[in-house]
Amino acid sequence: MSESASNVVYLIIAVIDFVIAGWKCLALLRDPTPTLSLITVNFVASGLVFAMAAPAGYRMLGDLTGVPSFATLPVYIGILSCFSLLHLLTMLWDPRLRQSPAVLRRRVTVWSAVYVAAPAVMVVAFCSADLSGPMDPLKFNTNFAGDPLIQVFLAVFLATLACGTLNTYRRCRKLNPADPRFRRALRSFGTAMLFVFGYVVCSVPAIVLAALGNHALDTVGVLGSTFGSIGALITSYGLSGAAVGAWLRERRDIKALQPLWDLVVEGVDEDLAFSVDSARSHRLAWNVGFNLHRRVIEILDGMRALRPWVSPLPAAAVHAAQEASRGTADARPLSEQELQAAATAAALRDAVQRLQAARLEAAAQGHSGHPQPPEGPQVALPGEDTPASDERQRLLRVAQALTAPLVTTALQVVRVQRSATEVSEGQ
């Protein structure tokens, strides 16, 4: 890559890393765990590495320190820090190692010692080397390959990076989590390690030839940084892809639940909402998991508040309409869950209509407060015995069924039945 292209690519990756790091920090505040801490630190370190590795940042750091090539030291140590954290993460994810805490502790200790010793050697070698030659942010490896101390510096760096990435790749291949989303993310994570190893593959021959005075492969060495950049992007996906997918699903579910919330919370009693922000929580991009959890609770509270106004007629009308539509050409067979959701949606819409009609009647008579619910035993809503872990999916089905033709037809039938009953009672 050219310097201008490197500036753009590296700074974009740095911004992506810092954004993800901020997102992970928010998650860390809610759920502090060692794994999430390592991931957050990794993204912060990666963002700093790419900001310093960009030619603009590289030259700026050189001007500040008075050593034009100084940025190479923090960049390379930062790279090792990032991939050492990723390697340690895969150990913590390994269920077999977690079953043997002593083995896990020993392996983490050994590799941690390696990842501490390598930068120490690199610092000594780098600071002792003669760095008075020409400065090129993209060709440091080959420009200074003739210096024995820089050879030690690069050998330790590339050997440690190669061992870390290959061991991480091997461990990712062995892990087989039950969650398919996590499995896909882990597979991407392993692929990223191969791309980063591609940086080593490109750099080693270029450095060896340059040390011998032949710079024919300098461009190949520069190409290695492209592999490193691709690996960093795939790593970002591997560490955050599953979380981004979950965030998108939660955002989608919050929006999908909005009509049901409007019906049973805003349309029943606004005091059921936890705060004034509840009505617009579907527009918020942060704290999505909490907002979704809050939305489900508010809807369930609203449904319980409606129970005195629930009638058995709408649910029965839904089942009757479904039976009547069987055998027709345009009828779509409904699953038991879909039929239950339609019955619940019809019962809720009818209950809200009855409550609002009672409020209007009470207001017309000059009565204040809550209207008197109908006499008789309360009717349970379909699906009230759903386990808590399945409530979100049940409510999503109910929200989707609110405007279904089957529900609309059933409510029309109920209105006709009630009108006929009122006429007969009036006679």
Structural features, described:
75% of the residues lie in helices and 0% in strands. With 427 residues, it is mainly alpha-helical.
- The proportion of residues forming helix, as a percent range, comes to over 70%
Q: Give the distance, in angstroms, between the N- and C-terminal Cα atoms.
A: 90 Å
Which value, in Å, is the CA radius of gyration?
32 Å
Note the run of SSEs as H and E. Answer: HHHHHHHHHHHHHHH
Q: What number is the mean pLDDT? A: 86
What kind of sheet is the major sheet?
none
Beta strand count: 0
Instruction: Detail the poorly predicted runs.
Output: none
Q: Structural class, judged by helices and strands?
A: mainly alpha
Count of helix runs: 15
Kindly identify the CATH topology of the largest domain: Rhopdopsin 7-helix transmembrane proteins
Please give the CATH class of the largest domain: Mainly Alpha
Percent of residues in β-strands:
under 5%
State the domain count: 2
Oligomer: single chain
* Architecture per CATH nomenclature, i.e. the level-2 architecture of the largest domain: Up-down Bundle
